[in-house]
Amino acid sequence: MGSGGKALNLASRLEDHLIVDSDKRSIENLTNKGFNAVYCDLEDIESLKKLPLENSTVILASCDDVNLKVAEILKPVAKHIIALADSDDFCTKYEKAGVSRICRSSFAALVLSEVVETTRRYIEIEIDSDFENKTLKDVDIGAYCTIISILREGKFIRPHPDLRLKKGDIIGILCGKEVKHTKNPFDEILVVLRTPENVDSLMKEAKFLAKKFDSQLLILHKCNGALACSIHRGNKLENLDESEVIEALNSFAEQVDLVVVNPNKNRKEDEFLKKITEKFPVLISKQKTEYKRILVLVNTSTPDEILRLATSFSNYIGETKVLLLDQSLVSYSSKLTETKLEIEVSRGNPVIDAVKEAKSDYDLIIVSYRNDAGNIDMELLKRIIYDTPASVLVVD
Amino acid sequence: MISDLGILTIISAIAFLSPLIAERIRVPAIIIELFAGFILGVSFLNLIRGSEWLTFLSSLGLIFLMFLSGLEINFDLVIRSGKTVWRFIVYTISSFLISLILTYYLRLDFLYAILLTNVSIGIVVPTLREVTSSSDEFFQFNLLTSFITDFTTMFLLSIYILSLTASGGSIQILFALAIFGIFVVAHYAGRLAIWHFPGFMARWFQDDPSEIGVRGSMAIIFFFVGLSFLLGVEAILGAFLAGALISLVFRGGEKLNTKLFGIGYGFLIPIFFIHLGSTLKLEFSRDMILFTLTLIGIAYSVKILPSFIVFRDIRNSLSFGVLQTSKLSLTIAGVEIGREVGLISEFEKLALILFTIITCIISPSLFRHLQRTFEIESPNNKV
């Protein structure tokens, strides 16, 4: 929908496309150039309904006001609706209008993030003057794609967030479901109601996450003596003991991407955390309703998982700071392309730097329970997990 | 007659030149310092004579040597070795037991069993770095064994000296053992300080003009040294525990460690070795050579035999055992302490120092030779 530069860039890369626009002259020109283009008044309901759009993916590439109206009309007919938003202010409105994916920049449109769908695919794009001088972290290429290489004047450059693009650069982009998973990590979130206390606040935090990551929320609870896992919780909740939770979670392997729990008051759950984090990331909820500031403590020698989460939280949730607790981890920071993460390396003592940072005003801390880099004393790590006001996402 | 300042100038010049000479002839700087001290001392030129301040600085050097030995122990590595830690412990205990049996058979003092089990991390680490990567299993196994051996032997030495010097009998020994209780309490206090005052503690590791970290560390050293004095324990144990405490609480912090190593190895520790060399009296005899050779034989047996328990092949066992036989600073410190409390004679002191110098020169060379001869396989699959 639309015949501007964004729409044409997309159409030129798609074999099976149809350009729809209300500018007759543009349609004529495009037809002459070999595009499939039809005239339709984008603001006329009846005309839009006549379009052959069943099971198609509609890409809204006109101005935001028009896009919103079209989205409302086509919602029942189209398989997917993707909007190429001109302004961030419209994102909420697009969400309400039922748009399945919003690309906040025309770069995202270029790489066809949603259209790529199921199979892994490699795309190369040449940078034109529109993106000249932009840094990679300022470029939104969508959830399904990631930049893996940059060819400049015959030389390959390793991408990093502060790399400034130049006209003529050829950007190598990898797209696919696997990439989407690295950027949007939780399809299924399981809330474990271990006690009847603070259930509402726990659910509120879990729902906030589920909404942000477009995840399915499941609830594990005990009601009338029976263990249940459903999308609704029962009325009369009973206490769940540690072994019941572990046994139940073992049967969820491969099906759950995140477990959300309240902190255990007696704190004697080292084994519990160890066993669970080996299989799933665990969010120890401290009754937060949103995460404005997020801290990622990279205290593992295999930081891929924790950095993947850092990228996701930075992209979708809030201001994220990554503190690398070991100099040897610096090489991993080059993987954090297209993100607005603030990255810092511990220059003094890693233990003290971690504690100092964790006690600052953060809403969420992401940390590894493996704890094999940065020398954090295990007792202090447990204090970070249980005694800081921030919710803590513990990964393996 | 050279003035005190003149002696200090000579010692500073030796301390400055010894690492440069050592690099050229590929021996540890300590050997040059000992040798220079020996030439300038009572046996030859008699330029360096014992004076109160030199003895004091030398004692301070020994205290710093013990402190830095404690600081060098990477507790994190030991803790993270998890279930495999038994391998290192089995090796250390076996090596000590063999040493105990052989020294008992030869009617040598218990001090010998400790010194022959000891190993020099300062020799092991650079030698390993020359031939293998630090992430290699063989490297890690060597390093961890050295840490555990170092800690165990220093602990045994302190307890042994304590048992000999404690005039009040077993009650005083128990009283003296309170230093370990204070160590544990200080460890918890350090952890609490990090949790409650991270901003202040961070200053220890920053480029602070007032050098809070160095001042704090010095205060910890002399607190433990003073405590040792009050409890009737050897100052070396206090200094060693102070180093171990800083290592255990902070688990790293390159900047502070670099400054402390600078003070120690840059000034005070060379004074200890030069002074020690200056006190050696040359009394070479056939007996001394035979005794030194016997010690060398025992030292290699003590380290090579138990390595067959943890390695199943001759190649890894031999090269591991040979490298673990490297002795240096702590052995010499132990010899000096042993002499001070009258456990060994002047003859034995000289023989032990000679033995230490020989092992620290030939062990790394022999290890390199074995490495070249055999292509060492990873020990991981063979243990």
Structure characterization notes:
The complex is a heterodimer of chains A (396) and B (383). Chain A has 13 helices and 20 strands. Chain A has helices at residues 5-13, 24-32, 45-50, 64-74, 91-96, 106-110, 177-183, 199-213, 242-250, 270-277, 304-316, 350-358, 378-387; strands at 19-21, 37-39, 57-60, 80-84, 101-103, 121-126, 145-152, 155-157, 170-175, 188-192, 216-223, 226-230, 237-238, 258-261, 282-284, 293-298, 319-324, 342-345, 364-368, 391-395. Chain A is 30% helix and 24% strand. Chain A has 396 residues and is of the alpha/beta class. Residues 113-120 of chain A have low confidence and may be disordered. In chain A, the strands form 4 sheets. In chain A, strands 10, 11, 12, 13, 14, 15, 16, 17, 18, 19 and 20 form an 11-stranded mixed beta sheet that branches. In chain A, strands 6-9-7-8 form a 4-stranded antiparallel beta sheet. In chain A, strands 3-4-5 form a 3-stranded parallel beta sheet. Chain B has helices spanning 4-25, 29-40, 52-72, 75-80, 85-105, 110-117, 121-131, 137-165, 170-176, 178-196, 198-202, 212-231, 235-250, 254-279, 286-310, 314-324, 329-340, 346-373. Chain B has 18 helices and no strands. Chain B is mainly α and 383 residues long. In chain B, helix 5 runs antiparallel to helix 15 (286-310) and helix 7 (121-131) runs antiparallel to helix 8 (137-165). Chain B is globular, with a radius of gyration of 21 Å. Residues 378-383 of chain B have low confidence and may be disordered. Chain B starts with a helix and ends in a 10-residue tail after the last helix. Chains A and B meet through helix 12 and helix 13 of A and helix 10 and helix 11 of B.
